Amino acid sequence: MTTIIAVTAHDVRFPTSLSADGSDAMNKDGDYSAAYVVIHTDDPTISGYGFTFTIGRGNDLCVEAARQRGIPLVGRTVEELVGDLGATYRTMQGDSQLRWLGPEKGVVHLATAAVMNAVWDLAARVAGKPLWRLLAEMSPEQLVDATDLSYLSDALTREEAVAILTEKQSGRASRIAVLEANGGYPCYTTSAGWLGYSDEKLRRLLQEAVDEGYRHFKVKVGANKADDVRRLRIARDVIGWDADLMIDANQVWDVPEAIEWMKSLAEFKPLWIEEPTSPDDILGHAAIRRAVAPIGVATGEHGMNRVLFKQMFQAEAIDFCQLDSARLASINEIVGVYLMAWKFGVPVCPHAGGVGLCELVQHLSIFDYVCVSGTLENRVTEFVDHLHEHFVEPCIVANGSYVIPTAPGYSAEMWAESVEEYSYPNGEYWMRAAHPLAAEIAV
Amino acid sequence: MTTIIAVTAHDVRFPTSLSADGSDAMNKDGDYSAAYVVIHTDDPTISGYGFTFTIGRGNDLCVEAARQRGIPLVGRTVEELVGDLGATYRTMQGDSQLRWLGPEKGVVHLATAAVMNAVWDLAARVAGKPLWRLLAEMSPEQLVDATDLSYLSDALTREEAVAILTEKQSGRASRIAVLEANGGYPCYTTSAGWLGYSDEKLRRLLQEAVDEGYRHFKVKVGANKADDVRRLRIARDVIGWDADLMIDANQVWDVPEAIEWMKSLAEFKPLWIEEPTSPDDILGHAAIRRAVAPIGVATGEHGMNRVLFKQMFQAEAIDFCQLDSARLASINEIVGVYLMAWKFGVPVCPHAGGVGLCELVQHLSIFDYVCVSGTLENRVTEFVDHLHEHFVEPCIVANGSYVIPTAPGYSAEMWAESVEEYSYPNGEYWMRAAHPLAAEIAV
Predict the structure, then answer these.
(1) Which residue in B58, B101, B104 is closest to A58 by CB distance?
(2) Which residues fall within 8 angstroms of residue A227, CB to CB, at 6 or more apart?
(3) Cα–chain center distance at A376
């Protein structure tokens, strides 16, 4: 038996605002950050790593919430936690006092994501498998037992959930072989199109992405219509008209404004408009979708929980579901969203980027193909080429695909040196940023 | 000119779980708490007080988030803050790094509520008026300038907002006179019906409420169907069939379960079923409403923001809107919800109880009657008789009505002694609770 002796939470922030990496119409100066959780056991070779993602200020709130979520795990055994991952999740979410602060949204939900991501990482490490394979080797009943189906039964019953997974069970091994033969799971790049980049930088980075083999490209829009038109013209000029171009407004429009603005951008034939309005506005997305067709509507990186996604599907509000691996409450909530998406015929193209989200979503997309959807049609997973150097087993992208990860776990472990240097506010980087001489007293 | 010199945030918790006050099917052991904010100025006679409400653990997260929200106010003048309350709000909400943690929901939104409630309290104190009167003396344009209409334009344009307020402007004075002549704004009581109370206590408290002049009574349901039937029989036995009986499930059901369960309770002819399912489930509430009519559907105490309420109205999902004065981002967000509710024909019966929510909502209900709806029809405001002794100007309820408050401000100031004694974890109450001898070292 292995006992959990501590759950630590760490405030790790990277100064991405200095280079406008990640800049968009809503978020001009994010410092990509992780509320990073380590589950320590009495066996020094066994730990679990997880995180949620934020863009700077307030990361400390998620860290403290994750610390509180982790307290009840201390003293329990690893065998007990990973032996019933559904119960582990339900106990954590069942704290009614913390639940009041959401419920199931915002800081306390991000904290569940961080801690449960670490629990799933731990489970996969103990099993000696990458997380996607741990999931692919669970029976339909085991997967559903671990899935939070509460509030979903009007859209997905337990019986339907088991049936979807059972139907795909026999083909799992052959689909894993297909992915391995194909060189991985297809992705698209957002690295070229941040709003704060100059036209020259946009053109250069898009050309580099074309040269690297990408066929899908995303560009940020929404701050100024004339700028958008000019930048999308550059994009089509570089990538041509056969490649897929996605655009992303990061929630800056009201519903009528989104519909009106998209008339000016339709000539560039985007595959989707992403986050055209408030991420909470199910009916608004449905209205926009009806108005801008055949341009698709995509959202989900701020989709707060499974109940939001259920309604997005019921209302036929979106063409692409972009769930977030560190905003939804880990695998326990994510599997239910994948199952509903399949039932309602909506492809899942998960959000990534930030810090470590690419490391996580590669496992989700493989799981989707192997266990749920069985298809790659209309599916492509985001990739952003920032900050991977801080991860012990960074994702590997080649020829526009995520190479199938093989190391045990959820690929969530960061280098201890990175955690230390970028710890906020007392890590060496931030001490030096505050005053050059302060680096020497970093703790 | 008066300058803001500090914004302090305080973790105040009351041990309500000891007596099962506030217990329901979802929240069995809440310790009613306030993340309490004080805006201090260089004039010791001028301060602002506000809070958000939680039920215990995690209140510290709201306190810290409120502290961060308050930092940019320090050094600004009171005249500047209260001279453009819309700009003050937009600047606070515009912090894109904190916004990521919602957006506009959960801990960071509760923190905006706490700080902006203090700003509005400050504005009313400086004006020497109770908040409801400050609002009633603003022009339609001034009110709309202070209101957050973002993401609402497909349901409520600025022009419509001004028109609704303008239509009611001429009758404001006469409606104030009506309320004063009537002895205040009508309320209902929840104090009798907490789920953790015995049948005997339920019967006794209901009888006391009848004797005090109440005509509306709320009882908690949802944990056990046989218990619900027995308790509602007691309730009708005591209050009769002419009084209004409301029931509240506090989110414990899935959508089909809510519909099924309500069949067993329909014989008691409840006016509404409150929180039958997830507060995020707009389409679910609409489905329940269609199925349980003529029983009304009510929700809103966990309605996270104006976008959620917009959709509740658009989808015809609710019969009663129970917005929360400390979960929505203060008057700036609340006015927009009142205006939409009026446009869509949904009465607002605000949620109260907790700590200090009754003190706040009396101002909102008066504002609604005087400036927006102009009617009391189908409107009744919650009252719970707990913890009022901690407020400097507690609400006064007599003959089933909130007596119109006259003191300047938003009635949000707590006694300094209460804040000190119940500060968590180092106040005298909590120190003594941890160990009898520790009370002496409370700080």
Answers:
(1) B101
(2) none
(3) 18
Burial of B441 (0-12, 13-18, 19+ CB in 10 A): exposed
- Among residues A365, A296, A297, A298, the alpha carbon closest in space to that of A325 is found at A365
What's CA A239's distance to the chain center, in Å? Answer: 26
B4-128 fold: Enolase-like; domain 1 (3.30.390)
For residue B434, the tally of other CB atoms under 10 A from its CB is 11
Encode chain B (443 residues) as per-residue pLDDT tens digits.
Answer: 999 999 999 999 999 888 777 788 888 889 999 999 999 999 999 999 999 999 999 999 999 999 999 999 999 999 999 999 999 999 999 999 999 999 999 999 999 999 999 999 999 999 999 999 999 999 999 999 999 999 999 999 999 999 999 999 999 999 999 999 999 999 988 877 788 889 999 999 999 999 988 889 999 999 999 999 999 999 999 999 999 999 999 999 999 999 999 999 999 999 999 999 999 999 999 999 999 999 999 999 999 999 999 999 999 999 999 999 999 999 999 999 999 999 999 999 999 999 999 999 999 999 999 999 999 999 999 999 899 999 999 999 998 899 999 999 999 999 999 999 999 999 999 999 988 888 777 76
Alpha carbon distance B23, B18 (integer Å): 10
Q: Which residues pair with A104 in a beta bridge?
A: none
Phi and psi of B106, rounded to 5°?
70, -155
DSSP E strand stretches across A283-370: 296-299, 320-321
> What residues pair up with B220 in beta bridges, in sequence order?
B248
Cβ-contact B134, B123 below 8 angstroms: yes
CATH topology of domain A172-417: TIM Barrel (3.20.20)
pLDDT tens-digit map of A64-78: 999 999 999 999 999
- How many Å apart are CA B37 and CA B110, to the nearest integer? 12
For chain A, the domains span 4-128, 172-417
What 8-state DSSP symbol labels residue B423? B
Q: What is the pLDDT at residue B177? A: 98
A312-328 as b/e: b if 16+ CB within 10 A: bbbbebbbbbbbbbbbb
Amino acid code (one letter) for A246: M
* Measured distance CA(B206)–CA(B237) in Å, rounded: 10
Q: Which of B105, B220, B310, B363 is catalytic?
A: B220
Sign of CA dihedral A204, A209, A215, A219: negative
Q: For tokens 């065998």, what's the residue?
A: A79
Of A99, A302, A315, the CB nearest to B103: A302
- Between chain A and chain B, the number of residue pairs with CB atoms below 8 A apart is 188
Our CA angle for B80, B82, B88, nearest 5°, is 75
Distance from CA of A152 to the nearest CA of B (A): 7
Please tell me the pTM assigned to this model.
0.97
Q: Which amino acid is at B93?
A: Q
Q: How many CB atoms lie within 10 A of CB B350?
A: 28
- What ipTM goes with this model? 0.96
Residues of A in contact with B107 (CB under 8 A): 61, 65, 101, 106-108
A101·B284 Cβ contact <8 A: no
Beta bridge partners of A391: A414
For residue A139, report the phi and psi dihedrals to the nearest 5 degrees: -75, 160
Chain-chain contact of A101 with B62 (C-beta, under 8 angstroms): yes
List C-alpha distances in Å: A408 to A131, A379, A391, B40, B83: 7, 25, 14, 54, 59
A263 is catalytic: no
d(CA B193, CA A99): 22
Q: Which residue has the higher pLDDT, A270 or A215?
A: A270
Quick one: pLDDT at residue A443?
65
In the set A109, A351, A363, A386, the catalytic residue is A351
Burial A255-265 (b: 16+ CB within 10 A, else e): bbbbbebbeeb
